[in-house]
Amino acid sequence: MRRVLFFVMLTVLTLSLAACKGDDSKNVKANTISSATLTEREEALLSGPADQSFVFDFNAGDQYKEVAVWVEKYESGKLVGELNRMSTEIKNTGTMVFSTAKVNEENNQDRFSISVHSNEATNTAWSPETMKDDNFSIVSGSNPLDNISIKNKNMVLASIAYPSSEEGNRTFSTDFYEDIDSHMNELKNYDVVYVLRCTFN
Questions:
Q1: Residues 23-72: pLDDT tens digits?
Q2: What is the pLDDT of residue 122?
Q3: Which end of the chain is more exposed for a tag (fewer CB within 10 A), N or C?
Q4: Closest C-alpha among 186, 194, 190 to residue 114
């Protein structure tokens, strides 16, 4: 029952955000993706069902017909797996939502969800994930660059990290989001890191 309710809420949330945003994603520069600027109403819609959330608008133009989205999980700087990998067809513009929500307090279990809305259709992927103890601080952030070129493959859009020490209590650098492969050393300051990535085809 909880699972059904979660999916209903997530679908309504994504459709509401898409409806609220109207033509905003069409105003995004062609062949780019950017963090969405949310209204108070949109932020309120997100804060209900989600603990952490990131929203992006994209304009793929006519050249790209599909987007692949996934979350990479790193432990002590090493890639240990992927969550929620999905590919979906797109048409020109759209919105992408990445969110986490607590589903089991006792087991410290969250549900990671990714939704892509484009051409009046919404596709969603989700998976449960046992998180670190709540006593640990969480550092989260999204790519600070405006108008990220979707010609870049496997771009990094957002991150959720659990620092291993006080030194890790800061967000990742802009360089990390721009070129993760050359800045993998930043991951070593964290016990666990979840990185949202995507590529357009």
A1: 565 678 899 999 998 899 888 888 777 888 999 999 999 999 999 999 99
A2: 94
A3: N
A4: 194
Place of tokens 């994603």: 25
95-137 pLDDT tens trace: 999 999 988 877 888 999 999 999 999 999 999 998 766 556 7
Residue with tokens 């589903």: 103
Give CA–CA dist 92/77, Å, rounded: 36
Residue 84 to residue 68: CA distance in whole angstroms: 10
DSSP structure string for 30-64? TTEEEE----HHHHHHHHTT-SEEEEEEEE-TTT-
Alpha-carbon dihedral sign for residues 119, 153, 50, 48:
negative
Count CB neighbours of 139 within 10 A. Answer: 17
Contacts of 9 (CB under 8 A, 6+ apart): 48, 49
